[in-house]
Amino acid sequence: MSGLTLIHVILSLIAIGSGIVVAQGLIKARRYEKTTLLYMLTTALTLVTSFLFPFNGVTPGIAVGVICVIIFIPTALARYSFQMRGIWRAVFVVGALAMLFFNCLVLIVQSFQKIPPLHALAPTDASPPVAISQAVLLVIFLVVGFFSVRRFRPTLMGI
């Protein structure tokens, strides 16, 4: 594993771990300021490092990276410029969860490609175990997103 790959993987795993804590906070209507900052920073660095790999044409990974950059910008603005006021609360919640979803989606695909027992179970990205894992992830994020948008209200929390 190259140095860039190792750094990218470590940043991605930190982003996923801190993103899960942020998502938990959204559901419980709690703000975890330091964890949110860590999540946003490591997500940004994950995006930056993803575009440092050699370009060999548009791949699903590059498409996900571009989508995440497009999501990241309004999400960061919603959190740090607009303080999640008004519609910006929903922009932050949906954006933060969407970026976490895409990070987890890539984790699933990469796990099936790189971990031998998982690769043996699903030798291609179109194998049923991969599709089932991705479908379960999507359902989880839709449920988390629904409850997060309904419950997370920083203005009602006195913030």
Question: What are the defining features of this structure?
Answer:
single chain; 159 residues; mainly alpha; 77% helix; globular
Task: Describe what you observe in this structure.
The protein is mostly helical. Helix content is 77%, strand content 0%. It has 6 helices and no strands. The protein has helices at residues 3-27, 33-50, 60-81, 87-114, 116-121, 128-151. Helix 1 runs antiparallel to helix 2 (33-50), helix 1 (3-27) packs across helix 4 and helix 4 (87-114) packs antiparallel against helix 6. It is globular and about 50 Å long.
Spatial separation of the terminal alpha carbons:
44 Å
Largest sheet: none
In one word, what is the shape? globular
User: Could you name the ranges where pLDDT drops below 50 across 5 or more consecutive residues?
Assistant: none
* CA-atom Rg in angstroms: 16 Å
Please describe the topology of this protein.
Layout: H1 3-27, H2 33-50, H3 60-81, H4 87-114, H5 116-121, H6 128-151
Task: Give a short overview.
With 159 residues, the protein is mostly helical. The protein is built from six helices and no strands. Helix 2 (33-50) runs antiparallel to helix 3 (60-81) and helix 4 (87-114) packs antiparallel against helix 6.
